[in-house]
Amino acid sequence: MILRHTLLMPALTAMAAFLIVSGAESQIVRDPRRLESGVDIVMVTATVLDAEGHLVPGLSREAFGIWEDGAEQQISVFTNERVPVGLGVLLDVSDSMFGQRIVDARAAVERFLFTLLNPADEFFVTAFNHAPRTLTPWTATPSVVSDALNSLRPSGGTAIYDAVISAMPQISRRNRQRAALLIISDGADTASDANLRDVRGALLRSDAFVYAIAIDSPGGYPINARVNPSALSEITGQSGGRTEVVHDADGLLAATAHIAEELNNQYVLGYSSPKSADGKFHSIRVSMRDTSMRVRARNGYVGTPVSKPR
């Protein structure tokens, strides 16, 4: 990450959050909270797949390589254990989500958050039509999310880009080490003030993995244009996440299960950044020593100076 609050973990206080032992096979996360101090550590979340596309758990630090701006870095922080996640759900409530679609989406979100993920995780929910509206603060309480979802009444157009940008301050205030966003939408963006370039720029200042579920099912689109998976993939790809296209309720349940499985089997890596917070883009490339495996991770960050506490 590189919001220093999210992308970078300063080294001295990172010692309190991670057990960093020279020569240890893996670093065990002791405290998932993000802390601040002097030397920057860039934190990167990674998903590893085998040649058949199956998740690969339990690898050691030596299985990975990581490069910044083309220069290989020493991995100083590593865990192959599950790290709690702060996850924001961005749910489309435009008028084309009316009826069974919103019912199916509510059920999938509740199952995703409170059955498939972990009690140590925390969540917030934002609904969006022509404008985003935060429904819950950070919470791990099922009734808070259920009450918010049950209050939804679909109407209006679709402002996906505005919803993603509105979620960034929430992500930066999370209390868990990892960050993720899940977008669920059945329409193309028709109402945002922001554009795709704005969204991609905002995500370079966050370490959130972004996932999207594009609902492309039969039926009319009274206001919305048909969902645009390519545009969603432009959002999710640079973060290390991905977009799934579904056609019905069963597909929606399967997609959320796949995403939960990924979140439950990710790796967290960190390295001391050789760059100052210069406001410039720095590329990140994570690779596997075993070339039969594939890895997904964010492809870079923008260094952002941190304000010193007064």
Core attributes:
alpha/beta; Rossmann fold; six-stranded mixed β-sheet; 7 helices; globular; disordered N terminus
Mind explaining what this structure looks like?
It is globular and about 50 Å long. Helix 2 packs parallel to helix 7 (249-263) and helix 4 (160-172) runs parallel beside helix 5 (196-203). The relative contact order is 0.22. By secondary structure, it is of the alpha/beta class. It folds into 2 domains: 11-79 and 266-302, no CATH class; 85-263, Rossmann fold (3-Layer(aba) Sandwich). The strands form 3 sheets. A 6-stranded mixed sheet has the order 7-6-5-8-9-10, sandwiched between helices. Strands 4-11-1-13 form a 4-stranded antiparallel sheet, with no helix packed on it. It is built from 7 helices and 14 strands. 25% of the residues lie in helices and 25% in strands. Residues 1-6 and 9-39 have low confidence and may be disordered. A hairpin with a 2-residue loop joins strand 2 and strand 3.
Q: How do the strands and helices of this protein lay out in sequence?
A:
Layout: H1 11-17, E1 41-49, E2 64-68, E3 71-73, E4 77-79, E5 85-92, H2 100-116, E6 122-128, E7 132-134, H3 142-150, H4 160-172, E8 178-185, H5 196-203, E9 209-215, H6 229-237, E10 243-246, H7 249-263, E11 267-272, E12 281-288, E13 294-297, E14 300-302
Parallel strand pairs: 5-6, 5-8, 8-9, 9-10
Antiparallel strand pairs: 1-11, 1-13, 2-3, 2-12, 4-11, 6-7, 12-14
Helix pairs in contact: 2-3, 2-7, 4-5
Q: What order do the SSEs take from the amino end to the carboxyl end, as H and E? A: HEEEEEHEEHHEHEHEHEEEE
Q: What Rg is obtained from the alpha carbons, in whole angstroms?
A: 19 Å
Going by helix content, strand content and strand pairing, the class is: alpha/beta
Q: Judging by the overall fold, what is the CATH architecture of the largest domain?
A: 3-Layer(aba) Sandwich
- Total count of strands: 14
Low-confidence stretches: 1-6, 9-39
CATH topology of the largest domain: Rossmann fold
Instruction: Determine the N-to-C terminus distance.
Output: 24 Å
Please, what is the average pLDDT?
Answer: 86
Largest beta-sheet details: 6 strands, mixed
- CATH homologous superfamily title of the largest domain: von Willebrand factor, type A domain
How many structurally independent domains? 2
Name of the top-level CATH class of the largest domain: Alpha Beta
